[in-house]
Amino acid sequence: LIFWFVFFQEMEKLTFCVHTRPDALCRLICFAWAGGGTSQLAQWGKVFSDSIEVFCIRFPGRETSLIGPFAKDMTSIVDEVTNVLLKELKEKPFAFFGDSFGSYVSFAVALHLKEKYGLEPVHLFISGGHAPHSEGFLAVKSLPISDTKDEEILAHLQIIGETPSELLHNEDIRKQMVLTVREVFRVLQTFFFEKAEMDIPFSCDITCFNGSDDKVHDVQAWQELTSGDTSFYELPGGHFYLLKLSNESFLSKHITRCIENAAL
């Protein structure tokens, strides 16, 4: 009993599910962007069909998990997600959706599941993320973020729309956002993936989404990571294009169709 109590405590801390569907055909596990997004993506549970149950991963050190420490490296995040969700992922088909920082975490978790347990998502949805072996991702990892001034980080966040400017007038929020960015980059710099050293890791289809006004991402290289099909979609908006209701509608319908076709 003590084991199950602790287990469910850990699951509640790590995951967020707004609308439970025990009889769903498939689970969609969402990995949000660096600064948050858990509550927004978890709301997808209300707009998806009854065939899909939506879970969202709560990253330590942000949102409702602010009191917890940040993960020190990508391996720590992957291990925690795997340990808590492994039972559920073995029960029925699952798909991953990752946005920005979440796209790299979802890929790292998927890779670990495939290599260690022979488990694979029925579909991998990537949003606003470089392929993990591309020049774009290597450039991100090499940024000297620890030496960057707070003002430069805040200016960058405003450019990409990470945080509304009115919130940045709050000193506590400014400090938290700068800390989050530094910690996220520290985690990314611990993630190593060498495509040349391994066979094609996945057989599932991969779909890449990007905002039309966002910076260009190296997405074509995702084709090299699966023997399945790879699709690319550009939707109106910037870095947070997926928060637009019209885009949310497209995403929910498209993701549902992909999952139902794959999980049949």
Automatic annotation (TrEMBL):
Reaction(s) the record says it catalyses: (9Z)-octadecenoyl-[ACP] + H2O = (9Z)-octadecenoate + holo-[ACP] + H(+)
Group of enzyme by EC: hydrolase
Protein family according to the UniProt entry: Belongs to the thioesterase family.
Recorded name of the encoding gene: Sast
Enzyme Commission designation: 3.1.2.14
Residue ranges occupied by any Thioesterase domain in the UniProt entry: 27-252
Regions annotated as coiled coil: none
GO biological process: medium-chain fatty acid biosynthetic process
InterPro entries: AB_hydrolase_fold, TEII, Thioesterase
PANTHER family: S-ACYL FATTY ACID SYNTHASE THIOESTERASE, MEDIUM CHAIN, THIOESTERASE
One Pfam family, short name: Thioesterase
GO molecular function: fatty acyl-[ACP] hydrolase activity
Record-given protein name: S-acyl fatty acid synthase thioesterase, medium chain
Keywords: Fatty acid biosynthesis, Fatty acid metabolism, Hydrolase, Lipid biosynthesis, Lipid metabolism
Origin: domain of life: Eukaryota
